[in-house]
Structures are given as structure tokens and as C-alpha cells.
């Protein structure tokens, strides 16, 4: 977008206009090493198994989105919930090293390198032959952050930051740094960020480029824009309001026909996709009142969802009129007792509105003129909240959950926590009519995809126990165990993964376990 590029260049020019006589004053070196061992049971799917799910032929005429790749063992990426499957164990490590240079005239520069690895992926020796191979193994080390910063611009409490940087707002419910639980790969943005901050309030305005469609393309990029404001005038309480706009202008086309075919599409208004414009507006309040603490956030999304509609193609054409229109909310309230161990009890819940329009009527099934319908759920954007160790990878949607827990500190350095959670889908998937025998799903009327049965919506109950040991201010050890009591909704299958576009169906109903051990040091 020419306008976006102009704004970026303008920001660079303003930054370059800062006093040129800035001298190096201070250099700070920091970093972090984080290592986590993970072990999952009954969650993986072995694609060589022959358990019956829904083959593509049973879904003819139905637009089901990313689940179009059905096969005889469920959709690609399905979860097993089966003790006959393999367990999954691996150790992940993220290493970070940064340098901050402070100059005079309120100028600073920050550079951070990081590397995310799985143990054993880069070992350089063959134990059988003893050969030592130091071949290039890929871009393991990345420039995670690299930005220039100017403070107190024009004599105001105004800061400009230009370059690759983390964006973290509020509790990171919608925009965060992707470092929670397992898979802590981190997330940074190529962005320009302007911050005006006083003791009473702060306002952030930013723009970030998420995808470059090509140097010779005027408008095939993805940009994220936002304004995030916080009011700090209440003691121990913050109130936030924000607007986020994600614009995806990548080209979409179902067909590339001859002039006659294109004329036909123009006449009937099909295959006519516009840029996706996802707008999110929200309010958040958080803080403490005496012994109580709270976290509450609500958001609404609207705009054109053509990138999602493009996925819903039963045959040739997708849904070029798909829209975002969904609510979401997150609430947590806790109370800390003034006594030994400082026990805290808390309850919370979350709601992410979703759609499942994947069923069709007999007329839609038989008619060549029926139009596909997209199922658009609340998009979690770049959330750093993970509600489940099994179901969620910060993308769980079309569902609601309630949770609660208790935590305590037996000593100043040890913290214990017990958490219980319940998950339920909002709109269930209408599966082909079938009977279930010994875990096998046998269709009643093969290839009559209009004849359906509603899958269950109860996904399961999850319990989690964890302990954290603060060995020092810099070094932390943590261990945890989670158990999922799998319910019929997770077994039969529902579209709750990947912002409501991924299928959760399994091949059995065996409970799952997750154990981890982590250590991290920061300097």
C-alpha cells in the first residue's frame, strides 16, 4: 500500500531528524535461556491407522473450510485421544541474547538475537561411523528484534520506535509475544510504534507489516494497524480501550478461466474477492481492590472475511461475501487471604463466538446453483493466552470455558497451583448420519451428505497441577502435570481449533496426559 509505505518513510525521516550529535552513553547486555521438556500421551494421530472417520465422498457438496482434507483417519492434524497411538516427547530450547545502546539526546538502539531449537535436531556427529559433520543446518539464529528509539520527542512525553519489535498490549489477550506454555517460539513485528505516556494515561499507535506480497505488487501485503489507550488515574486499576485493524490484500481467485469464463463470473458476481478487513474494538479493566484482583476484557470483530470465505469451496467457488461478526470475552476474579502461604482462590471464564454452517439441506445438495457458506468465528489474532494444554494453541474459538483454581506459597520461593477447567463448543458439527460400533463410525447413507447427525458439544474437563521454584531472582524451575477427561465432543469432532477452522475429532475417547519440566534463567 502506497499510503502505508509513505507513513513508514515519514517515521524514518522524523527519527533521522533527531539531533545528530548523540553520543554513546551506556551499553547493556542481556538475555535468556529457556529449556522445557514435554511429554504427551494419547494425543497424536497415526495416519496409517484405519479407524473410520469421514471420507471426502461423504461430504460432497458441503463447504467445510480447512477440513476439506478428510481421509479415513479423520482430518489432517486431528487429535487422537487414543491409547493405541504413539506418545510424544521432546525438549525445546530458546536462547536469546540482546544488546541495548543508550545515547545522549534520548536516543537508543536495541538488537536481540534468538534461536528456537528442538534437542537432537542439530547434532553434528554420526555415532555409528564417528563422522563429524558440520554442514549448514539452516537459519537457526534470527534477528528477533532490532529497532531504533527516540524519546522525549519535541519536548513531549512522546516515544518513537522503528524496526522489528515485540508488541504487547494489556494482558496479551489479543496481541502478545507467544511465549506461554510449550512452543514458546516468540513473536515480533516489523513495525512503527508511537507512544504518548503520562502518569494519568498512555496512547499507543502502531502499524506493522505482516507479509510482503512482492516488490512489484502495489497491494498484496498484510498490514496490522492499531490504537491502544490506557487510563491510569485510578489507584491499582487500569482501564484500556483499543481498535485493531488487520488488512489482508493478498490476491484470491478460484479460477483462471478464458475470457468467456471470466465474463460469466463478472455477470453473476462470483469469484469476486475483496481484501480482508478485520476490525476489532475492545475494552479491558484490570487491577486490585483490597484483597480482590480482577481481569476483564470484551471485544467485538467486524469486517470483510474474504480470506476465510475463500477456504469454503465445496467444488469451485468459495464464499466471497463472508463477514466477521463475533463477540468474545474473558473474565477472572481472585481473592488472596492474608494468612500463612498466602492462598489465592480464583474463578474465570471465556467466550469466543463461532459459527458452523457446514450442514446443507437436500435442495442445496442437489442444486447446482446453491452458494457456499463460510463459517466465521472470532479470530484470536496474536493472543498469548492458552486456555488448555491439549486443545488450545492460542487459537481456540467457537467455544466457551469456565475455570477455577487455588494457588499458595508454602515458602517465599515455592509456588503451588491447582486448576480445573471445563470446555464446551458453541456450535456443533453436523456429521454424516452414522452408527458407532467399537470406535468405528459407519455411515447410514453413504454420499448423502445432507443427511446428518449433530455431534456432541462437550469437549472435556481438564485438571492441572504445577509447582514453581524460584531458586534466585534470575533462575526458575517449574514442573507440571495436566490431565484431560475427554468427552464426546472432542471424540466425535467439532470445529474449535485454529479460530474455528480446525477439526478436533479423534479416533477414540481415551483421556490424555501432559507432563513438563522447565528451567529458565534471565540476565
Describe this entry's structure for a reader:
- By secondary structure, this protein is mainly beta.
- Helices cover 7% and strands 46% of the residues.
- The protein is built from 5 helices and 26 strands.
- It has an 18-stranded antiparallel β-barrel. It has a two-stranded antiparallel sheet with strand order 2-3. A two-stranded antiparallel ribbon has the order 18-21.
- It is globular and about 75 Å long.
Walk me through the topology:
Elements lengths: L1 H15 L7 E18 L28 E2 L2 E2 L12 E16 L3 E12 L23 E9 L7 E8 L23 E9 L3 E11 L10 E13 L2 E12 L10 H10 L7 E14 L2 E13 L1 H4 L13 E14 L7 E9 L9 H5 L32 E10 L5 E12 L4 E3 L1 E4 L2 E4 L8 E3 L3 E13 L4 E12 L1 H5 L2 E3 L4 E2 L8 E11 L1
Antiparallel strand pairs: 1-4, 1-26, 2-3, 4-5, 5-6, 6-7, 7-8, 8-9, 9-10, 10-11, 11-12, 12-13, 13-14, 14-15, 15-16, 16-17, 17-22, 18-21, 19-20, 22-23, 23-26, 24-25
Distance between the termini: 40 Å
Strand content: over 45%
Q: What global shape is seen?
A: globular
The Cα radius of gyration reads 26 Å
Keywords:
523 residues; mainly beta; 18-stranded antiparallel beta barrel; two-stranded antiparallel ribbon; 26 strands
Summarize the structure.
With 523 residues, the protein is mainly β. Helix content is 7%, strand content 46%.
